[in-house]
Task: inverse folding
């Protein structure tokens, strides 16, 4: 075996796969590192805006008047006006009127939870309102069939009927 | 010409002729197709609208099973990598399972991000928000894209397996971070529904059907893909074997 010439040869076609230059892989790795950095920076920058429930405004640290924050609450029934830019949000029994500076998403409705980005303003009388820039509709983790009540009613009637029989 | 001399062929890759399909994978493929058919039927037609989200809820039956599949895939990648790193179980089979699983995981994490983004637009009013769940999910996605790039950096099969296994074990830590991000921060993304008992009836059934169908799809894809990776390795090994056979012939001649 010692007389076999094991010096490298120029052409070994089937081994070419293993010899290719991995430039593409290096490029992808560089892109991944760049994107990862962007994600971390964007996440940390975004987290600078405190996320407050309506009842925490002026109470919780960071949820201050005249500071850019995000507030969470439920759009009060009957308060969404025809322009869809004025409504009232409530959380834990505390309400705050909201004036949007832009057209909100079409998904905005009454009686749904929302998250609004903007600033809490306070007038001379100490009345607070929220100057909103963007509103996002937040759906909770509860899923119910649309006609669940009607199905439940039908089931109850069927049960009552079978008991009468 | 006989490409492989049994005495010199690499013991690392496996047999010469190995199809990627077997009777088991064909049955599995049929079950997967049937499961996806049922999912389409229940997800699009038989499950009810949600009281709040109405028809928009149907994207849930793709979004959640995709996310589940990606978690599963990255978990398997991590565990297979651990098996490779542990000396008693070290085998390139584990490395190929890890690679195949990561590829499938990246594909379905991508589907999770796209379906979630579309759902976000019609439900929240925005395609993207830098909240904890979305950001950690995107971070997990690019981490495994990086893992696949590391696998392709060249070197021997063993070098590839070792460096990618170390990265996979580290990356596995991100999976619980993504999962619990909705509890540790206050995200726009909703909290858990199934574990909290906030979903029932046909909606829950359709979702579980989706998870089962996607799990079958995962197993089918990974079995085929890891066999293709084994064939790729075999081609690489053959290059070396051919060169050695040629030189042996030269020496004899």
Result:
């Amino acid at each position: 075996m010692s007389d076999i010439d094991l010096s490298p040869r120029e052409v070994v076609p089937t081994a070419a796969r293993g010899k290719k230059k991995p430039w593409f892989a290096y490029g992808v790795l560089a892109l991944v590192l760049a994107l990862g950095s962007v994600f971390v920076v964007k996440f940390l920058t975004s987290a600078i805006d405190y996320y407050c429930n309506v009842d925490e405004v002026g109470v919780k640290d960071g949820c201050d008047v005249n500071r850019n924050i995000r507030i969470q609450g439920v759009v009060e029934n009957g308060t969404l006006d025809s322009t869809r830019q004025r409504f009232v949000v409530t959380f834990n029994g505390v309400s705050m009127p909201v004036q949007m500076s832009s057209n909100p998403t079409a998904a905005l409705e009454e009686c749904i939870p929302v998250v609004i980005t903007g600033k809490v303003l306070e007038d001379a009388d100490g009345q607070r309102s929220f100057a909103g820039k963007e509103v996002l509709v937040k759906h909770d983790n509860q899923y119910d069939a649309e006609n669940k009540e009607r199905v439940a009613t039908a089931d109850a009637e069927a049960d009552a009927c079978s008991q009468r029989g | 010409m006989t490409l492989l001399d049994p005495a010199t062929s690499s013991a690392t890759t496996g047999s010469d002729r190995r199809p990627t399909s077997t009777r088991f994978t064909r049955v599995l493929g049929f079950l997967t197709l049937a499961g996806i058919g049922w999912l389409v039927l229940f997800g699009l037609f038989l499950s009810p609208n949600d009281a709040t989200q109405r028809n928009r809820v149907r994207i849930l039956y793709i979004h959640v099973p995709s996310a589940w599949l990606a978690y599963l895939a990255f978990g398997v990648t991590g565990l297979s990598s651990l098996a490779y790193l542990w000396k008693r179980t070290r085998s390139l089979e584990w490395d190929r399972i890890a690679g195949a699983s990561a590829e499938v995981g990246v594909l379905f994490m991508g589907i999770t991000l796209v379906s979630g983004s579309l759902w976000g637009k019609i439900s929240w009013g925005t395609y993207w928000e830098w909240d904890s769940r979305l950001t950690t999910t995107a971070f997990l996605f690019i981490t495994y894209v990086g893992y696949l790039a590391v696998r392709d950096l060249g070197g021997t099969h063993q070098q590839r397996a070792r460096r990618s296994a170390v990265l996979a074990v580290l990356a596995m830590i991100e999976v619980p971070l993504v999962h619990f991000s909705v509890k540790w921060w206050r995200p726009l993304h909703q909290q858990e529904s199934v574990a909290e008992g906030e979903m029932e009836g046909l909606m829950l059934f359709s979702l579980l059907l989706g998870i089962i169908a996607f799990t079958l799809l995962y197993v089918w894809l990974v079995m085929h893909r890891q066999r293709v990776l084994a064939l790729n390795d075999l081609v690489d090994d053959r290059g070396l074997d051919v060169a050695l056979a040629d030189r042996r012939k030269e020496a004899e001649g």
In short: Chain A has a mean pLDDT of 80.
